[in-house]
Amino acid sequence: MFTEELKSLRRLGFRHVLLQVLNFANVITSGLMIWKGLGLVTNTKNPIMVVLSGSMEPAFSRGDLLFLTNLPSPSYKTGDITLYQLPGGDIPIAHRVIETHDIPRDRSSNSTLIHTDKQLLLTKGDNNYIDDIQLYQGLDWLERRHIVGKVQGFFPYIGYVTIAMNDFPQLKYALLGALGLLALVQRE
């Protein structure tokens, strides 16, 4: 099956194979630059996230692709859907804000610095019976530093590709191998 491709690869020569490898590397680095550019524009390290559980059904299902922003100025309101990650946590969690508390900071008249209000948040998955305090690892509230972003939109079920590749690593390696092979044998 691959003997024909290997023969054609040998006929192409070193320079052509090198050109194909560089084209493949260009595609990979372009994707990474787009990801980092989205992160800069949206002010979040994860501008796109895949829903991994059913805790937010019916709003979001497993496999939905979420689009996030993390603007520095606006405060969060009850009903906003946020993505938060606690220190030491591996996977960020997307849940709805069910309670907020705005705490004004000390505003001394001698200070030239502008102090912003501190906001405390309590979240809960739409499909969960109780709030997320058990998930907060000893914290009573989420703070702004725990928030990764606010959900602005979503595409349903697009993220199942990512879930399938995480659940079945062989599929991921097979797809990467096939893409690499196609990049090498493709003629332009």
Layout of helices and strands:
Elements: H1 3-12, H2 14-42, E1 48-50, E2 65-69, E3 81-84, E4 93-103, E5 118-124, E6 147-155, H3 160-167, H4 169-185
Antiparallel strand pairs: 1-2, 2-6, 3-4, 3-6, 4-5
Low-pLDDT ranges: none
The class by helix and strand makeup works out as alpha+beta
Query: Span between N and C termini?
Result: 22 Å
Mean pLDDT across all residues, rounded?
A: 85
The strand count comes to: 6
- The share of residues in helices is 25-40%
Major β-sheet strand ordering: 1-2-6-3-4-5
In N-to-C order, the SSE pattern is: HHEEEEEEHH
Question: Tell me about the biggest sheet?
Answer: 6 strands, antiparallel
> What's the number of helices?
4
Q: Beta fraction of the residues?
A: 15-25%
Q: What's the overall geometry?
A: elongated
Gyration radius, rounded = 23 Å
Describe the overall structure.
This protein is α+β, with helices and mostly antiparallel strands and 188 residues long. Helices cover 34% and strands 21% of the residues. The protein has 4 helices and 6 strands. It has helices at residues 3-12, 14-42, 160-167, 169-185; strands spanning 48-50, 65-69, 81-84, 93-103, 118-124, 147-155. Strands 1-2-6-3-4-5 form a 6-stranded antiparallel β-sheet. α2 (14-42) crosses α4. 16% of the residues are buried.
